[in-house]
Amino acid sequence: MAILTAKKSVFDMDPEEFEMLVKPVALKAKQDALDSGAWFSYQNDLCIKPDMFIHEFKDGHKELVQLGKEAGEYKVLKIF
């Protein structure tokens, strides 16, 4: 596990400095998830409700999904 060391507290960083610090870690986490067979979830402008997410898969396809009422339940709204 990588340990981040910063010369400046994250609370003292401007948005660009913070992004430079966390972006490599986030990209590695995304790739690790995809490599393990999982999807990577995030929200973007297509997610017009709080319970909507994009699932991105290793092969590059994406699904717009809406979460269900039960844990692990979701409905695929669009595949692209």
Question: How would you summarize this macromolecular structure in one to three sentences?
Answer:
With 80 residues, the chain is of the alpha+beta class. Helices cover 26% and strands 25% of the residues.
Q: Per the principal axes of the C-alpha atoms, what is the gross shape? A: elongated
Total E-strand runs? 4
Radius of gyration, Cα only, in angstroms?
A: 16 Å
What percent of the residues sit in helical stretches (DSSP H or I)? 25-40%
Subunit arrangement of the protein = single chain
The count of helical stretches stands at 1
Briefly note the structural class of the backbone: alpha+beta
Q: What integer is the average pLDDT?
A: 92
- For the largest beta sheet, what order do the strands appear in spatially? 1-2-3-4
Largest sheet: 4 strands, antiparallel
The stretches of 5 or more residues where confidence is low (pLDDT under 50) are: none
Give the SSE order as H and E letters. HEEEE
As a percent range, the share of strand residues is 25-35%
Distance N to C terminus: 34 Å
